[in-house]
Design a protein that fits this description.
InterPro entries: F-box-assoc_dom_typ1, F-box-assoc_interact_dom, F-box-like_dom_sf, F-box_dom, SCF_F-box_component. It comes from Arabidopsis lyrata subsp. lyrata (Lyre-leaved rock-cress). With 427 residues, the chain is of the alpha+beta class. The chain has 3 domains: 31 residues, no CATH class; 308 residues, TolB, C-terminal domain (Neuraminidase, 6 Propeller), CATH 2.120.10; 50 residues, no CATH class. The chain is built from 8 helices and 25 strands. The strands form 6 sheets. Strands 1, 2, 3, 4 and 25 form a 5-stranded antiparallel beta sheet that branches.
C-alpha cells in the first residue's frame, strides 16, 4: 500500500511542536530536516510554540566544580511539574570560569555573570558565547538582564544584554544609575542615558524575562513607594516602571516575601507573603492590571532558608521552590494542605533557579578569548586530551609543550587528583 507524502508545510508545523531536545536528535534523520531545524525562521516559530507550554523548572548550581570526568562544570537539574516526584537528571555543563554571581534566562539562553566576564550559553546545544565586560564593570554592584527586540528587516530576534549599577541611598555617591546595552549582532556596548531611572537600593530582589523584556523587582532609592518593578524596553532603550498591587507598596513589615515570576509562559506574576496573615498571594497581570489569582496558607513545614523566585500554577495548585540545602518543592492550593517533595541532588548550597525552556537558539559570533584566559582554560584539560588539541591550531601547538605551561598544567592535575581523593574519602 502506497503511503502519501506529507506536504512540507505540514511537516514543518508538526516539527515546530516537538520539544527541542527531541529535535536535536531528529536533525540527523535527513538533510531536509537538518536544514529546516537550523533555519532561523523555524527556530523562532518553534520557540513561540514552546513559550506557550508549561516551562521546565530548572535549578542551577552556581558553585564551580572540578570533575575528573568533565573538567570544570556548572551542574543543573530539571524538574517536570507534571511528574514532580521524579527529579530530572543532574546534568553537568562543561564550562571554565569562576563561580557565577547570578544567572538570567531568556528563551533557552542563560546569562552567567562572573567576576571577570559574561557568558551566554545554550546548554542543550552545548554552545557558549563569551562577552567582554564594559568599562567600569563591577560584578558586586551591577545588575543584568537578557532580552531581545524583533528585527523587521531580517524577520528574526536581535538579542541584547542590559546592565545597570545598583547602590545604596547616597545621592552624592550614586546620583544616577549607569546603564549600558550590549548587542549580539554588533558585539559592542553602548551607554544609554535614562535620567528617569535612579536604580535600586541594592541588588534586585528578583528578575524575569517575558517576551524579550527583562523585569526587575527591588527597593527604591528615593520616593514614597518602598519598592517597584522596572522593565527595560530595548527598542526605546529606556526603563519603564510598573505599578505593584496595593498590599506590596507599603512598609516592609507588611510584606515578608515578594518575588516576580512568569505565569503559564506569557503573563507576569507576583508572589508575596503577608507578614500579618502568613498567607501567600499569587497575583497575575492581565491587560496592565493586577488580578489576585489565589491565596493559600504558608506550608506547615519547618522551612529553613528562603523561597526562590520561581513558582508555577498547575491545575489550580501552586508549586514553590524553597532553598534548604537541598531542593524542596511544596505543592498545594486554596483550602488544601501542601505536599512536600524533596530532592537530594548533590548540588552545592549556592543555587540559582528559573523556569526554563529549551530552545534551538544559536550563540554564534563568539568573540575571541584573551590568550591568558585560553591558557587558563586548557591548563585544566586532562593531558590525554591536550595531546589531541595540539593539532587544533599553531598557537596551541606552540603553547602546550612550553615548559612554563607544562609546569602550570601539572600543578592543576595534582590539585584535581587531591580533590578526587578527598571526595572518595568522604564517600
Amino acid at each position: 500500500m502506497a503511503t502519501m507524502e506529507l506536504s512540507s508545510d505540514l511537516v514543518e508545523e508538526i516539527l515546530s511542536r516537538i520539544p527541542a531536545r527531541s529535535l536535536v536528535r531528529l536533525k540527523s534523520t535527513c538533510k531536509q530536516w537538518k536544514t529546516l531545524i537550523t533555519e532561523p525562521r523555524f527556530v523562532n516559530k518553534h520557540l513561540s510554540h514552546m513559550r506557550c507550554r508549561e516551562q521546565q523548572f530548572t535549578v542551577f548550581n552556581n558553585e564551580h566544580i572540578v570533575s575528573p570526568l568533565f573538567g570544570s562544570t556548572i551542574s543543573y537539574v530539571g524538574i517536570d511539574f507534571n511528574k514532580p516526584e521524579k527529579c530530572g537528571m543532574n546534568l553537568p555543563f562543561p564550562i571554565a570560569f569562576s563561580p557565577a554571581n547570578n544567572i538570567s534566562h531568556c528563551d533557552g539562553l542563560l546569562l552567567y555573570v562572573t567576576k571577570s566576564m559574561l557568558l551566554v550559553a545554550n546548554p542543550l546545544l552545548n554552545q557558549k558565547r563569551w562577552i567582554k565586560c564594559s568599562q567600569g564593570f563591577d560584578h558586586s554592584m551591577d545588575a543584568y538582564g537578557l532580552g531581545y527586540i524583533f528585527n523587521q528587516l531580517s524577520g528574526s530576534y536581535d538579542y541584547k544584554v542590559v546592565t545597570f549599577r545598583c547602590g545604596v541611598r547616597i545621592k552624592d555617591l550614586y546620583p544616577s544609575s549607569r546603564v549600558e546595552v550590549y548587542a549580539f549582532e554588533s558585539d559592542s556596548w553602548k551607554v544609554v542615558v535614562d535620567k528617569n531611572f535612579d536604580g535600586f537600593d541594592g541588588f534586585p530582589l528578583s528578575s524575569v524575562c517575558l517576551r524579550g523584556t527583562p523585569y526587575w523587582l527591588g527597593y527604591n532609592k528615593y520616593g514614597n513607594q518602598l519598592m517597584s518593578i522596572q522593565s527595560f524596553d530595548f527598542s526605546k532603550e529606556r526603563f519603564e516602571p510598573l505599578f505593584l498591587p496595593p498590599p506590596s507598596i507599603g512598609s516592609r513589615n507588611l510584606v515578608k516575601y515578594i518575588s516576580l515570576g512568569i505565569f503559564r509562559g506569557d503573563q507576569l506574576s507576583l508572589l508575596l507573603e503577608c507578614h500579618e496573615t502568613s498567607k501567600l498571594h499569587l497575583w497575575v497581570m492581565k491587560q496592565q492590571h493586577w488580578s489576585r489569582l489565589m491565596t493559600v496558607d504558608v506550608p506547615q513545614y519547618p522551612i529553613y532558608g528562603k523561597y526562590f523566585s520561581s513558582f508555577i500554577e498547575r491545575n489550580g495548585r501552586l508549586a514553590l521552590f524553597i532553598e534548604s540545602g537541598n531542593i524542596s518543592i511544596y505543592i498545594g492550593g486554596e483550602n488544601q494542605d501542601f505536599e512536600k517533595i524533596e530532592y537530594f541532588t548533590g548540588l552545592g548550597r549556592t543555587l540559582s533557579d528559573c523556569c526554563y525552556i529549551q530552545s534551538l537558539l544559536q550563540t554564534t559570533m563568539a568573540i575571541e578569548l584573551p590568550s591568558d584566559l585560553v591558557e587558563e582554560i586548557i591548563s585544566w584539560v586532562p593531558a590525554i586530551s591536550l595531546v589531541r588539541l595540539r593539532y587544533s591550531c599553531k598557537e596551541w601547538k606552540t603553547l602546550i609543550p612550553d615548559p612554563r605551561f607544562v609546569k602550570k598544567h601539572l600543578s592543576h592535575m595534582r590539585c584535581r587528583e587531591q580533590q578526587t581523593i578527598h571526595t572518595l574519602q568522604q564517600d
